[in-house]
Design brief:
The chain is of the alpha/beta class. Helices cover 46% and strands 14% of the residues. It is globular and about 95 Å long.
Length: 680
């Protein structure tokens, strides 16, 4: 592993943070923590922790010794100085005198001694950092270190590799007991430069940030070389092919997860697929069933991935694979229920069971699939699982993969301090939903995408203009941008496939793309009328057909929502090409509502009027206002409410329609009140 420390960059960090009033110690702590956090083979998504012992002034203005330690919720890869909250060190050190300390009392003591009461909770391993004498301390979950630390004879291997440079600490759950044990072992090895916590991870320490970081990289590099030199050839095996593309398989998997939830978990999940040479090796491993069920590489990963992945049957066309998935998930859930019952009885029956669904799937021919409440959450779970794959394969090749046992895994999974890392904030109304917006690059489509993203949904923005799609997706904050001409069936099919590949499926369709072709009906060319129908009617039909296919594969219903326009009910002069196509679209909406209610698909129409967009340009607004002899403002607010209707209003209407669980076939005007356009 390469040492990325750069003296010039470190000095620049000291200068930059110093201008903000940050001490040199904390500036260098931040700099080296980010180096560690930027390497996935060391630290992933909030894992690991770092600290520095320094001095700061308390409320009385007295200079005291403090421990600046990583705070809960901060990711080392992007940490800033506030991510290492300062805790008065002496009261923490005094805790070492105690024979026992509950988790609740430990957390309380740490928070009581924060210099800033608004700071995040210090790491659950704060006391370990406090009890050790070293100024800078780094803790990682290196994949190479874990490949050795998860061996049955790990202590012997580590002694052979590091000699007296590193001391070993037997596995103990993080908290007060581990802090006491690790610091006692540290005291017995005063010349040690690091600690390996068996089945857990690595600590390095030194008087300076540069030296502590360098030691960590040195230890990990030595471990990588050791694993490479001592490993047996990996067993060969033939990888199974998939008869089903991932784009078609993913919605089926989402549907199986929904059925397996059975009221014990949310129905909708977002997927994130990974493929790599190592994943392919694992899937072809002759002892895959055993290896996959041995447990997580380091215990705190269990809150992300659970103890084991789901081993999916080979994907195939038709209902057979869906039934096989149901059976595999039923077996997984039953096994999880039994595991919980065993371990909960051991601890006195005081725990409340978490949902039993997997967070990782190993699927022959398809790869590794992370499961989460959002695309970001699924990606985190997939990232952690990829490190597990690497660690398990390397440990297996080295001698044998033997991570923590079931009881220790359970204690970590159901540890309140570990669960708190995931946060308990209420999910937004459309969390776990995937939304596809056509015509998403225009003013109206962009507002719709942003409205859904604001409700927690993951959004795919489709537009004929790739640049506009990208801009709208970025404005939404969490979106996939795709170039798509909805008048081309192949484009639509490809876009749906890409959305399913990215998120696992889709739940809400906003069929919004459209364009107004103007001209008196009697003077319209057949070409112009057909062009209008291609975009304003047939394209919506193509989108709807693809949506229904995915909805049926998922089996949990969905929402199919159309931007129809008030022109469908209240046509205007010279808008015949547009209005007649929209009238046909309104009939199509009602037909889909009629035919797919049994599939749980809710089909509704939004009828906007006078929205500043690509359809109603500033030039057109000026011309219409002049024709009526009113100001532009008066023209745009010419409705019962006397207010201009915005793209944001339309976006909120689509959100409202998506949330209505008992409504289908409805027409919702968003026009400020236009009597002539009211549905009747």
């Amino acid at each position: 592993m390469k040492n990325l420390w750069n003296d010039s960059e470190a000095a620049a960090a000291v200068q930059r943070y110093g201008a903000q009033g940050v001490s040199e110690d904390l500036a260098l702590r931040t700099y080296s923590a980010r180096l560690l956090g930027g390497e996935p083979l060391l630290v992933l998504h909030g894992g690991g922790n770092t600290s520095v012992k320094t001095r700061a002034r308390d409320v009385y203005g007295d200079e005291i010794e403090v421990l600046c330690v990583k705070g809960s919720g901060w990711d080392l890869g992007s940490i800033e100085p506030p991510g290492h909250p300062a805790v008065a060190l002496e009261p923490l050190r005094r805790l070492r005198q105690l024979s026992a300390l509950s988790d609740e009392a430990m957390v309380n003591a740490q928070r009581q001694n924060l210099l800033d009461s608004n700071a995040p909770n210090p790491s659950v391993e704060t006391l370990l950092h406090a009890f050790m004498p070293d100024k800078f301390i780094d803790h990682t979950h290196s994949a190479a270190i874990l490949a050795i630390a998860d061996q049955p004879n790990a202590a012997e291997l580590l002694a052979e590799l590091f000699g007296d440079r590193v001391a070993c600490v037997p596995y103990v759950m993080p908290g007060f007991a581990l802090a006491k044990l690790a610091s006692d072992i540290r005291d017995k090895h005063p010349n040690a430069q690091g600690l390996v916590l068996l089945k857990h991870g690595m600590f390095s320490f030194a008087p300076t940030a540069k030296e502590s970081y360098a030691r960590m990289i040195d230890f990990v590099s030595a471990a990588e070389a050791f694993v490479a030199q001592r490993s047996r050839p990996r067993p060969g095996g033939k990888a199974q092919a998939s008869a089903l593309s991932y784009a078609k398989a993913a919605p089926v998997l989402r549907g199986a997860l929904a059925r397996a939830a059975a009221g014990r978990a949310p129905q909708r999940w977002v997927l994130d697929r990974r493929q790599s040479a190592e994943i392919a090796v694992l899937l072809a491993h002759p002892d895959l069933n055993t290896l996959a069920r041995r447990g997580v590489a380091t215990p705190d990963h269990v809150i992300r991935t659970k103890a084991a992945p789901l081993l999916a049957p080979p994907a195939d066309e038709g209902a057979a694979w869906s039934a096989a998935l149901d059976a595999a998930l039923a077996e997984y859930v039953a096994a999880y229920d039994a595991y919980f019952a065993r371990q909960n009885a051991r601890v006195g029956g005081v725990k409340k069971q978490l949902d039993p669904l997997p967070r990782v799937v190993l699927a022959p021919g398809l790869g590794l699939i992370g499961i989460g409440k959002s695309a970001a959450d699924a990606a985190v779970n997939a990232d952690v699982a990829e490190i597990w794959v690497k660690t398990a394969l390397e440990a297996d090749a080295l001698g044998g993969y033997e991570p923590v046992n079931e009881a220790d895994t359970f204690d970590m999974e159901y540890w309140s301090l570990e669960q708190a890392k995931l946060g308990k904030a209420a999910e937004k109304r459309l969390a776990r939903h995937v939304v596809l917006v056509t015509g998403g690059g225009g003013a109206l489509g962009a507002a719709i995408a942003k409205a859904f993203a604001g409700e927690g949904a993951d959004v795919a923005v489709l537009d004929v203009d790739a640049t506009r799609a990208d801009s709208a997706a970025k404005a939404a904050g969490k979106g996939l941008a795709l170039a798509c001409d909805v008048t081309k069936a192949d484009d639509v099919r490809a876009a749906f496939a890409r959305v399913c590949e990215r998120f696992g499926g889709v739940d809400i369709i906003i069929s919004n793309a459209g364009s107004a072709i103007t001209g008196a009906a009697a003077e319209l060319s057949d070409e112009a009328l057909r062009k209008s129908f291609e975009l304003n009617f047939f394209a919506h039909q193509t989108v709807a057909q693809e949506a229904v296919r995915v909805f049926r594969a998922q089996g949990v219903g969905g929402a199919l929502l159309f931007n129809v326009s008030k022109q469908a009910l209240n046509p205007g002069p010279d808008f015949g090409a547009y209005g007649t196509a929209k009238a046909a679209l309104l009939a199509l909406v009602r037909q889909y509502a009629l035919e797919h209610a049994a599939d749980g698909v809710r089909v509704n129409a939004i009828n906007p009027d006078r929205i500043r967009s690509g359809l109603l340009t500033d030039k057109m607004i000026a011309a219409r206002a002049a024709a009526r002899g009113v100001s532009e403002a008066a023209y745009m607010s010419g409705n019962l409410l006397g207010r201009e209707v915005t793209a944001e209003d339309v976006g909120q209407a689509f959100v409202f329609a998506a949330l209505m669980q008992a409504t289908t076939g409805a027409i919702i005007p968003v026009d400020g009140g236009n009597v002539a356009a009211m549905p009747r």
